[in-house]
Design brief:
With about 290 residues, the protein is an alpha/beta fold. The chain has 10 helices and 10 strands. The longest helix is centred in the middle third of the chain and has 16 residues, at about 175-190. Residues about 280-290 have low confidence and may be disordered.
């Protein structure tokens, strides 16, 4: 599969001399859910800013559909209409007084006519579950609602790629579940999603492709189903093995679950365990304790 975005040995040095990326290389396939996994300071945010063209490499290059990034004004406008970025803190991104004005900002800057902009704003707000919020003042929204408005503002541009920096940060459990469901719906529509996280359980549960980062480099990439074979890369990225994998391995060792495909969450592992007969051929007698 031809990559949608390629990052080729990119380095980035900030004005204060700090290094954000060090020979970072990875490829992002279209239509997939990509999780950038790493500890704080691993370079995840810096990489996202490069993917969107907000930062330019000191060394190396990026390609979009096989073409080297064009950093001219027109080139960046075209890129950002296809590759949308949602910041970790929504207050960095919201610029208008009303929700509908903020969501309309991007499409208006594309030069679209008023009727098309209205249609896109309405569709984007419906997509994030905020239909009817158009006239709501932004300052009256909760943190989670502000994040969804930011996502709507990107969706109104009808991008091919949605970038999200630590999207679950600052959200309680119900809001995280709502946002995850939204990301699932967008992925089902064919939107390529790239998000940064330091939550290995979420990355394993949600992602199709896991890209492990440490010290400004992508040190390994693997399909989520192969994460069990990436123990050393996970450790280098400051991560433990996902709980679902660790739990499944222990239950398999005890003969309580058969070897095979590993469920992607602890809840799914427990469901598989409960589906087993109460008496297992483990050389022991007794019942499983749920």
């Amino acid at each position: 599969m031809t990559p949608l975005i390629e990052v080729d040995a990119v380095e980035h040095a900030f004005a204060d001399g700090c290094t954000g990326l060090r020979r970072c290389t990875l490829a992002l396939a279209p239509g997939r859910r990509h999780a950038l996994l790493g500890a704080n300071g691993a370079g995840k945010t810096t990489l996202l800013l490069h993917l969107n063209g907000l930062l330019r490499p000191s060394v190396g290059r990026l390609r979009w559909h096989g073409r080297i990034y064009d950093y001219s004004r027109n080139g960046l406008t075209a890129l950002r209409s296809r590759v949308g970025l949602v910041f970790q803190n929504p207050d960095r991104q919201l610029i208008s007084a009303l929700v509908e004005e903020d969501v309309a900002f991007g499409p208006l800057n594309l030069g679209l006519d008023e009727a098309t902009v209205r249609e896109r704003v309405a569709a984007a707000l419906d997509a994030v579950g905020l239909g009817g919020f158009g006239r709501r003042p932004v300052h009256q929204l909760s943190f989670g609602q502000k994040k969804r408005v930011c996502i709507a503002g990107v969706l109104a541009m009808e991008p091919e790629v949605l970038l999200l920096d630590e999207p679950m940060a600052g959200l309680d459990a119900p809001m995280q579940a709502e946002l995850e469901a939204l990301l699932d719906r967008l992925a089902a529509r064919g939107v390529t999603i790239v998000l940064s996280t330091h939550d290995v359980d979420f990355a394993y549960r949600w992602g199709d492709e896991i890209h492990m980062m440490a010290e400004g480099r992508c040190i390994a990439s693997a399909p989520a189903q192969e994460l069990a074979s990436q123990r050393e890369a996970l450790r280098a990225a400051g991560q433990r093995m996902p709980h679902a994998l660790a739990l499944h391995a222990e239950l398999e060792k005890r003969g309580l679950l058969a070897a095979g495909a590993v469920p992607r969450s602890v809840d799914a592992v427990l469901a598989a365990l409960r589906a087993q007969p109460l008496h297992q051929k483990t050389g022991q007698t007794g019942e499983l304790q749920a």
